[in-house]
Write a structure and sequence with these properties.
Strand content: 25-35%
Number of strands: 70
Radius of gyration: 37 Å
Number of helices: 11
Shape: elongated
Helix content: under 10%
Mean pLDDT: 89
Low-confidence stretches: 1-25, 1020-1027
Largest sheet: 7 strands, parallel
C-alpha cells in the first residue's frame, strides 16, 4: 500500500508564495540598538532587565511595551572604543514581537538626551547560510548556533552535514503519521534497502511526477527479517500496513515534528534543519481517522522503530506514569540501543502558551534513560508555559516554530510546544552521532548535554516558584556539541598567586598556580601546551610554559601547573592582562585557543579588596567615632557599609536603608556630640542620617529624586550643622534645608522653579556679608531659544539674592564650584555648561558674585565635562587653576585670571575623564599631585608637571563610576587611595609620606560636600627635609578638621616659641606651646578643646606663632 502526491505541483505552489532575496540587507523588526550618551557615567539596568536608572529611557520602554534592555556586548571592555564611541555603551532594546513601525520607534528613541544613537539591528548572515527560503524566520536554528555548526563542514566543497562515509543515522518519528512525500522531507526519508528486492539501491521512485514505493520491491515478504513486511520507509503499526502516511491530512503533528528533525537543507526551498541530511523513519501510531490529537499505539510504534534499527526515537507526546511503560523504555534503551527523547509537556493542562508551567513530570520524558526536553522562546526566553522538573535534561527553542505541514495547499505552518523543541534536539543528536558513529550512546548524549549553554531565565520564577535546576543543563548548542566531537576545550579553572603578604607588588617575582581543565564532553587533549605572555611594559614572563609531557588531559580532568613572572619597580598597578595560549592535538585535529587572566598588581592592605560589592558613588574615608583611626564608607544597593582597617565591619554597619542608595554621602558632627554622622539619600526619596554606631539618627522623607549628594553647613549660624539638598519632583525642582532633628529650616523647602534642578547645591558666603548663600543651577526649555541653564543664589533664610537667577545658553550644568579667584574677598561662581543636546561642546563659565552680566571669563572644550570642577594652584604661582576633565580625553588646569594653563598642560588621559579631580601632596615634596578616573577604568595620578606618579595609571578591568577617596587609613603617615568598582572596593597603599596642604582632597572639595574652596588657606610649597633658613608656619592639616588637626612650623635656629589658638573675638582659646624649641621642623596637634578641656564649638579659629620677632597668623575651621 502506498500514498501518492504530485511533487512538482507542491514545489511550484511554494515558490509562488515565498520569494525571498538575500541581496537586500535585512533587519530585525523586534529590536533596536541604542547608544547611551557618554555624559551618563553611571548607567544601570535593573535585575529584571526592564528598567534603567534613566527615567526618559524607561518612559519609552514602557510606551512601546519593550520586553527588555540588555547590553549588546557584555564582555566589551571600557577600552574598546573608536574615537569617542565605546562598545560597552551599546544596548539592545527587545520588544518581544514584531513591530511594523520599527523605523519610527528607532527615530523616537533618538529624540531623548540620554541616547545619541538609535538604529535598527541588522540581521547577520553567517559564512554559511543554507539557501532555504525560510531560513530568516527559523530563529531556533540560529539560537542553537546551527549556522555556526554548519560552518565546520566544507559544504561548498561537497561535505554534507549528517552524511557519513558508511551508513546513515536514522531518527524515527512514532506519531500520527508522516507525509513522507512532502517536498522538504522526501530526500531525507529513510529507505530500507533490506527490502530492496530488485537491488537498484532505492525503494522509492518518482513515477510520472508522483512519489511511490518501488513496484519491483513489493513482494509481501519480510525480506530483512525485522518482523515487518515491505517496511520500505517505516511502518503503520496502528493499521498494520507498510505506509506511515497520515490517516487524514488533518493529522499534522507527525509531519510537523519530522521537519524539525531533518527537513532537507540547502535545497532552495522552505525549511532548514539541524539534522540537515540525517534520515527520517515514519511510524504511524494512531488508528482513529477522526482524532488527530491522541495516539493509540505508541508502545507498538516505539518498539517497531527500535526493531527496524532506528538510532534515535523522538517521542513528541506525553502520558502518565506506568510501571509497564517504565520497563518498556528501559528495554528500548538497553536491548535495542536506541536513544529516546521525550517532550516535557506544555503546561498544567497541556495548553501551550496560554497555559502555565507544571512542575510535575510527564512521560515518557520522565523515565530514566529518556532524554527530556523543555521549550524556550526567542531571545533565550523561558515563558512559563512549558513544563519543568528535575528529570528535564535540556532546553531548546519550541515556541512559534515553522514546521512542515500536511495540507495540500499549505506546505508550512507554525507550531508551539515541547513537541517541537524535542525533535530539534533529536536532530542535533543525530548530527553529532553522524560524526562519531562508533561512540556509545552515553558519549553521544554527553556531547549534547555538556555543551549546552546557560541562559538567564534558567533561574527565573514561574507562578512564584523557581525553575532553577529544573530545566536541564542549559540551552542546546549544536556548534559546541559538534566541536566536542573533534576537539578538546581547554579552560582556566582557577588561578592562585604565591605572595609573601597577599599582594602582588611592583618589583616582585611571582609564581602563578594555574589549574587547566578540559571541559566535560570534549575530546582528550593530547600533546597539550599552555604558554603565558603579556604585552604590558614592566612585566617579564620567565617561566612561560605548562605542558602535559605526553599525558593527555581527558574530559573533565584538571591539571595544575606554574608560571613565573617578574615586574619592574615602576610597573603599572591594577588588573594587568596576561594571555594563555593553548595548543593541543586530538586524533587528526589540531586545537588552539586563548584565555585571558588578570593579574592584580597592587600596593594593597590586608583585608582588601572587599569583593562582591557594586559601588556607584564616591567612597569616603573618615574617622566617624573620633578614635583617631579612620574607616571607609561606601554604598552597594541598599546597604551603607563601614569598614575598619583589615576589612572588618565597623560597629553595626552595614546599614540597610531598605531601598537603593542613590547619592554620595556627606560627613559631619550634626548634633555636636563629638562624633560624626554620615548622611545620604535613597531612590525612595529618603534622607538618612546614620550615627557612628551604624544606627539611625534621623530620617527625612520626601517624594522627589535626590541629586548627587546632600550638603552640610551651619546654614543659619546657630552652631549646629544643617543638611541641604536638592530634589526634582513632577512639579519642578525643590531646595530643602533641614536640621538634624528632621525639622525644616525656617524658610525651606523652596520650590525653585517649574524647571529641573541640575545637581546638588553649593554653599559659601559669596559676598562676605556674614551670611551663607546656597547656589544651584536649573535647566529650562524655551520654544524660541531652546535649552537654558539658570543660576540661583538663595540666602540662609530662603530669600533669593539680588541679581539671581540669571540664564545662560546651555543644555545642562555641572555642580557649581565656589572660590575667590581674584583675592577681593568675594566669591566667584564656576560651572561647566553643556552647550547642545548632542553634547559636542561645553563651556567653563566664571561669574562674579553679583550674578547676572558679571561673566569673568570662559573656556570652551569638546564634549561634556564630567564629575565637577576642582581647584588648585598646580604651578605654585599664587594664582588658582580650575581643574576639570571630560570627553576631550584631557585633564585641564585653567587659570581664569591669567587665562593660561601651566606648562605641559593639558594632560592626555587616552579616553574620556569621568571623575572630579582630587588634588593632594601625596609625596611631601611641596608640589601637588592630581588624581582622576578615565572612561577606560584607569586611575591616573600625575605630578604637577604632568609626569605620571609612580606605578600609575592604575588599570582596572572592572568599571569605575565614582571619584576615589584618599586619606591615611592605617595611620602610617602615607595615603591610601580608596577605589570603588562595580565588583569590589580596593585600597591602594601609597608608600610615601604625604604633605600637609589644604587642597581639593575629596569629592566636592571636603566632607561637607559644599563645593567651596577657601583660597586663603592655600600654603606655599612645603620645605620638606631641607635645612630651613627662615621661620615658616604651615597650614594646619586637615582643614577643616574634626577632631584633631596638626600644626607645623619651621625654625632656622633654637627659639622660644608661642603657638596660640584664638576665636573670632580675639579671645585665647588654648595655648599649645610656650617654650623653647629646637631648630628644624616641629609639629603639635590640637584636639579642638579649650584650656579647661571642653570641646569648642563649630566655627572659624585662628592660630598664631611668635618666635624671635617672627609672627604669623593663619585660620582654620573646626567642624562637628
Amino acid at each position: 500500500m502506498s500514498r501518492k502526491t504530485n511533487a512538482s505541483c507542491s514545489i511550484i505552489l511554494f515558490l509562488i508564495i515565498n520569494n525571498t532575496s538575500f541581496a537586500t540587507p535585512k533587519y530585525h523588526d523586534d529590536r533596536i540598538m541604542v547608544y547611551i550618551n557618554n555624559k551618563i557615567i553611571d548607567f544601570r539596568i535593573s535585575d529584571d532587565l526592564k528598567t534603567t536608572n534613566v527615567p526618559d529611557i524607561n518612559n519609552l520602554i514602557q510606551s512601546f511595551n519593550a520586553r527588555s534592555i540588555k547590553q549588546w556586548l557584555p564582555n566589551a571592555r571600557p577600552t574598546d572604543k573608536n574615537h569617542d564611541v565605546y562598545l560597552d555603551r551599546f544596548h539592545v532594546i527587545y520588544f518581544g514581537s514584531s513591530k511594523n513601525n520599527i523605523d519610527a520607534i528607532s527615530e523616537r528613541f533618538k529624540l531623548i538626551d540620554a541616547i545619541t544613537i538609535s538604529e535598527k539591528v541588522a540581521i547577520v548572515e553567517p559564512a554559511y547560510v543554507p539557501n532555504d527560503s525560510l531560513w530568516d524566520q527559523l530563529y531556533g536554528l540560529s539560537q542553537i548556533k546551527a549556522d555556526l555548526a554548519f560552518d565546520l563542514w566544507d559544504i561548498d566543497g561537497g561535505e554534507i552535514p549528517g552524511q557519513m562515509e558508511n551508513g546513515e543515522i536514522v531518527v524515527a518519528i512514532p506519531d500520527i503519521g508522516l507525509k513522507w512525500s512532502h517536498p522538504d522531507l522526501i530526500d531525507n526519508i529513510w529507505q530500507n534497502l533490506g527490502e530492496d528486492l530488485d537491488g537498484d539501491g532505492v525503494v522509492l521512485e518518482l513515477i510520472d511526477g508522483i512519489w511511490t514505493f518501488d513496484p519491483d520491491d513489493e513482494n509481501g515478504v519480510d525480506d530483512d527479517e525485522d518482523g515487518y513486511i515491505d517496511n520500505f520507509i517505516g511502518y503503520d503499526v496502528a493499521m498494520d500496513d507498510n505506509d506511515p502516511w497520515p490517516l487524514n491530512l488533518t493529522h499534522v503533528h507527525g509531519t510537523k515534528v519530522a521537519g524539525n528533525v531533518s527537513a532537507v537543507t540547502n535545497n532552495g526551498i522552505g525549511l532548514s534543519s539541524v539534522g540537515y541530511s540525517v534520515k527520517l523513519m515514519g511510524v504511524n501510531a494512531n488508528s482513529n481517522i477522526n482524532e488527530p490529537w491522541y495516539l493509540t499505539h505508541t508502545n507498538e510504534a516505539v518498539l517497531a522503530a527500535a526493531q527496524m534499527g532506528a538510532d534515535i526515537i523522538n517521542c513528541s507526546w506525553v502520558s502518565g506514569y506506568s510501571n509497564a511503560n517504565n520497563n518498556f523504555f528501559q528495554i528500548i534503551h538497553s536491548e535495542y540501543g536506541s536513544i529516546v527523547l521525550g517532550a516535557a509537556g506544555n503546561g498544567v493542562n497541556n495548553g501551550g502558551v496560554s497555559d502555565t508551567t507544571d512542575f510535575n513530570p510527564r512521560y515518557p520524558a520522565g523515565y530514566e534513560n529518556v532524554l527530556s526536553v523543555t521549550a524556550l522562546g526567542a531571545g533565550d526566553s523561558f515563558n512559563c508555559w512549558s513544563n519543568v522538573h528535575e528529570t528535564v535534561d535540556i532546553s531548546a527553542p519550541g515556541e512559534f516554530i515553522i514546521c512542515a505541514y500536511t495540507y495540500r495547499d499549505t506546505l508550512y505552518a507554525l507550531g508551539t510546544g515541547t513537541s517541537y523543541a524535542t525533535p530539534l534536539t533529536a536532530g542535533a543528536i543525530a548530527l553529532v552521532k553522524s560524526l562519531i558513529p562508533n561512540a556509545d550512546n552515553e558519549t553521544v548524549i554527553s556531547k549534547i548535554l555538556n555543551t549546552a549553554g546557560h541562559y538567564p531565565d534558567m533561574i527565573r520564577t514561574c507562578g512564584g516558584q523557581s525553575i532553577e535546576g529544573l530545566v536541564g543543563s542549559g540551552q542546546l548548542n549544536i556548534h559546541r556539541a559538534v566541536l566536542a566531537t573533534r576537539y578538546p576545550e581547554l579552560l582556566v579553572k582557577d588561578v592562585q598567586f604565591q605572595t609573601d603578604d597577599g599582594f602582588i607588588n611592583p618589583g616582585e617575582t611571582i609564581t602563578i598556580n594555574v589549574t587547566i581543565q578540559n571541559s566535560s564532553g570534549f575530546e582528550p587533549a593530547e600533546d597539550w601546551v599552555a604558554i603565558l605572555s603579556t604585552d604590558e611594559p614592566g612585566f617579564d614572563v620567565i617561566d612561560n610554559q605548562i605542558q602535559g609531557n605526553g599525558v593527555p588531559l581527558l574530559e573533565s580532568e584538571e591539571f595544575t601547573g606554574q608560571f613565573i613572572f617578574t615586574s619592574n619597580e615602576d610597573a603599572l598597578l591594577g588588573d594587568i592582562p596576561f594571555n594563555i595560549q593553548f595548543s593541543a592535538t586530538s586524533g587528526d585535529y589540531s586545537y588552539e585557543s586563548d584565555a585571558e587572566i588578570l593579574v592584580p598588581v597592587s600596593l594593597g592592605l590586608i583585608g582588601f579588596p572587599i569583593e562582591n560589592v557594586s559601588i556607584h558613588f564616591p567612597p569616603t574615608i573618615t574617622d566617624l567615632d573620633g578614635n583617631n583611626y579612620s574607616e571607609i564608607y561606601f554604598d552597594t544597593d541598599s546597604l551603607m557599609h563601614g569598614k575598619w582597617l583589615g576589612g572588618s565591619d565597623f560597629n553595626n554597619f552595614p546599614f540597610n536603608s531598605g531601598s537603593n542608595i542613590s547619592t554620595g554621602n556627606a560627613v559631619g558632627d550634626l548634633d555636636g556630640d563629638g562624633n560624626k554622622e554620615i548622611v545620604f539619600g535613597t531612590s525612595a526619596g529618603v534622607i538618612y542620617v546614620i550615627s557612628d554606631l551604624g544606627v539611625v539618627h534621623m530620617i527625612y522623607e520626601q517624594e522627589g529624586s535626590i541629586l548627587d549628594v546632600p550638603v552640610l553647613s551651619d546654614l543659619d549660624q546657630d552652631g549646629d550643622v544643617e543638611i541641604i539638598f536638592t530634589s526634582n519632583h513632577d512639579s519642578g525642582g525643590v531646595l530643602y534645608a533641614i536640621h538634624d532633628t528632621g525639622d525644616d529650616v525656617s524658610g525651606f523647602p523652596i520650590n525653585v522653579s517649574s524647571s529641573t534642578i541640575n545637581s546638588c547645591p553649593s554653599i559659601a558666603d559669596i559676598e562676605s556679608d556674614g551670611l551663607l548663600d546656597i547656589i544651584i543651577s536649573t535647566r529650562s526649555w524655551n520654544d524660541q531659544h531652546g535649552w537654558s541653564v539658570n543660576i540661583h543664589a538663595i540666602d540662609g533664610y530662603g530669600a533669593l539674592k539680588e541679581g539671581f537667577p540669571f540664564s545662560v545658553e546651555g543644555e545642562n550644568s555641572s555642580p557649581v564650584t565656589l572660590i575667590d579667584l581674584d583675592n577681593d574677598n568675594n566669591i566667584e561662581l564656576v560651572h561647566a555648561v553643556t552647550l547642545d543636546v548632542m553634547h559636542s561642546q561645553s563651556r567653563i563659565l566664571v561669574w562674579g558674585h553679583e550674578g547676572e552680566g558679571m561673566l569673568v571669563n570662559s573656556f570652551e572644550t569638546e564634549g561634556v565635562v564630567h564629575g565637577g570642577i576642582s581647584v588648585s594652584d598646580m604651578d605654585g604661582n599664587g594664582s588658582m587653576e580650575l581643574v576639570f576633565t571630560g570627553d576631550n580625553e584631557h585633564i585641564h588646569a585653567w587659570d581664569p585670571i591669567l587665562d593660561t594653563e601651566p606648562t605641559g598642560w593639558p594632560l592626555n588621559l587616552g579616553s574620556s575623564g569621568i571623575s572630579e579631580p582630587i588634588i593632594v601632596d601625596v609625596d611631601n615634596d611641596g608640589d601637588l599631585e592630581i588624581m582622576c578616573v578615565s572612561k577606560s577604568n584607569e586611575i591616573h595620578f600625575f605630578h604637577h608637571d604632568g609626569t605620571n606618579y609612580n606605578n600609575f595609571p592604575y588599570i582596572s578591568q572592572d568599571s569605575i563610576y565614582s571619584t576615589p577617596a584618599i586619606g591615611d587609613l592605617d595611620n602610617d603617615g602615607d595615603h591610601e587611595v580608596i577605589v570603588g568598582t562595580l565588583s569590589d572596593l580596593r585600597v591602594i597603599d601609597i608608600t610615601e609620606e604625604f604633605g600637609d596642604r589644604y587642597t581639593w582632597s575629596s569629592y566636592r572639595g571636603n566632607m561637607y560636600r559644599d563645593g567651596y574652596f577657601d583660597a586663603t588657606l592655600v600654603s606655599i610649597k612645603n620645605h620638606g627635609n631641607t635645612t630651613p633658613d627662615e621661620y615658616f608656619l604651615y597650614d594646619n592639616y586637615p582643614n577643616p578638621f574634626n577632631p584633631i588637626t596638626k600644626l607645623s612650623f619651621v625654625l632656622p635656629k633654637n627659639s622660644r616659641v608661642s603657638l596660640t589658638i584664638f576665636d573670632t573675638r580675639g579671645m585665647v582659646v588654648k595655648t599649645l606651646l610656650d617654650s623653647e624649641q629646637v631648630s628644624g621642623k616641629s609639629s603639635v596637634n590640637w584636639d579642638g578643646r579649650n584650656e579647661i578641656g571642653l570641646p569648642v564649638s563649630t566655627g572659624l579659629y585662628f592660630y598664631r606663632i611668635e618666635a624671635e620677632g617672627f609672627t604669623e597668623t593663619k585660620k582654620m575651621i573646626f567642624l562637628k
